Amino acid sequence: MNLNESQTLTISGQDVVKNGSQHSWEDAKTILKPSTPSKKPPRPENSITIAVSSRVLFNMEKEQQIFEQQGMEEYIKYQVAHETQPFSPGPAFSFVKALEAVNTQLRDLYPESEELFDVVLITNNHAYVGLRLINTINHHQLFIERFCMTGGNSPIGYLKAYNTNLYLSSDPVKVHEALEEGIAAATMFTPEKMTEVSETQLRVAFDGDAVLFSDESEQIYKAHGLDKFFEHEKAHENKPLDHGPLKGFLEVLGKLQKKFYAKGQRMDCPIRTYLVTARSAASSGARALKTLRSWGLEIDEALFLAGAPKGPILEKIRPHIFFDDQMFHVEGAAEMGTVACHVPYGIAQRVPEGKGIKDKEISSIK
């Protein structure tokens, strides 16, 4: 904007006159200075986009009960009446904070790069609820600039438009729809207790079959038993497994890790990945590792449990997020405080039963 000698600029009800007797031009600069952070979200084509639903980012259980028992209109009225009251953190909160911590270090090392995590809030909430969500984000000092509020319609159609690399929701139906669209997705559950996790290092744990890899080997096991599975894996040891639904997410994590390695930070990288699999190391582990190598991907730690429970190992790892295709392992992890996500993919699927986990209703506000 340009101001001539005689021009007056009004900002927030205050008159500012250049070279005049009221507020000085330097005062105007102070008034004009934005109160929002100077950083801006990266362009979608350059970023790693993580789409999260409002009910996994924040705890909205009370509001969900109002919606189910009293309907949409009362739900909206309640949200508007309480819009200055922030939601408490949900199961994805620590994961999102860890993404932001990685971004901070990336910006320090690569100030001009837009290869950063970009968190998008994807919800079928009514736009009236948006003010409370914005107030909550500001209260918790989260950096989330992109919102998608669909007013009761499914948000799945927008995921590709946002170039989504990972979608997290409490709704298994929407997660299944996203996977059908070829988008990495998982149903996130809230453990009854939450283990403390690192604030400086993002830790992500993956199951192997039907998560990083396809379920082809699991199909052999289900159809023919363990002995035939071992025989099959030995015979196909040098044939890479096909990719599973979360392979792409591991790829983008690996790409960011290499940026830290290039700056000499391999040993103290702020991203660490784990393979936590029920496979046995000697009889079927080689194929898993050779598959990752054939893809050009590294995994920081590989834990072959030979069928043992995963919960105790995950309690030791303390990941921000763990992905598995079998609810048995998701439940076991959640019981020990790990934020676990179900990937509804492959032959091992069954309806979540919710032992130790709150079942999520299909008809709900996410």
Automatic annotation (TrEMBL):
- Any Pfam family matching the protein: 5-nucleotidase
A single GO cellular-component term on record: cytosol
Q: Please give the superkingdom of this protein's source.
A: Eukaryota
Q: Which biological process, per GO, is one annotated for this protein?
A: adenosine metabolic process
Q: Which GO terms describe its molecular function?
A: 5'-nucleotidase activity; magnesium ion binding; nucleotide binding
- Family annotation (PANTHER family): CYTOSOLIC 5'-NUCLEOTIDASE 1 FAMILY MEMBER, CYTOSOLIC 5'-NUCLEOTIDASE 1A
| Protein name as it appears in the record | Cytosolic 5'-nucleotidase 1A
Q: Which organism is it from?
A: Crenichthys baileyi
Gene name, per UniProt, is: NT5C1A
